[in-house]
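Quick question about two entries, pasted in order.
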Amino acid sequence: MSFNYHIENYNELVRGFRRKKDLSKIEKYFKNCFSSELESKIYNYDYDALVLSDEAHKIVWVSDGFKDMTGYTKNFAVGKKPSFLQGEKTSTAVKTQLNNELALNHTFSGSIVNYRKNGELYLCHIKILPVYNLDEKLKYFLAFEKDETNRAHFNY
């Protein structure tokens, strides 16, 4: 029992350090649009990876957790659209819903089947938020991604 308590505390400490690092790395993109609300979400949302894309949906930055979750490096991902993670078993209905919501600059929340670099399927829960600059012009989309493969019971 005591060992589990220490492991849980250790994991929470590591998550806190990782979130602080994510926040310090992402702040440079948010010079004219960063808010305490975004900072709060980075600290409070449960995620494995952050993906920041521009208004054309091209990735401009990913957190270190992205490589851990997908197998792809930051250098490989930057400049591509997140759809490079999708494949044959990715739901067309979910892709359509996601694209429709983002076209309207809305928040999207849902789960999608993606593919790791090694070809393995994983269920990714994503929450995507539009990020506006101080002039209220759309600047980025910030995606909070969580690997839910081990918690899910779904047919590939």
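Here is the second entry:
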Amino acid sequence: MSIARFALVALDCPDPRSLAEFYQRIVGGEIREPVTEEWVRLLIPNGSDLGFQLDPSYQPPQWPYGLPQQAHLDFDVSDLDEGEQAVLAAGARKADHQPSPDDWRVFLDPAGHPFCLCLTAP
């Protein structure tokens, strides 16, 4: 018997609205009202919503060489090169460390959270 159902993944950040808009460019969806300075929720079409919470003292992870990533998001893509171009155009940065670039690639969102594009199995 479960006592709860999964609602969303929430990311701490210095600017919730702009980070929600960044991820909206990547996965689509709709920003849910009400939007406040402290909280923004992105409703994603597949039901895996993302929340963005203001943390004025937020420090981005320095993975793999410092402050750990703590958590990260993975996104499936059918073509890594096309996916890479799309997330870079949306405002991501490619991480220097790429452990397995033929299978998945690591990027940083505008707040410095790492996320991966993962090649979907054929």
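Reply: Strands lie at 8-13, 30-32, 39-43, 49-54, 73-77, 93-94, 104-108, 114-119. The radius of gyration is 15 Å. Hope that helps.
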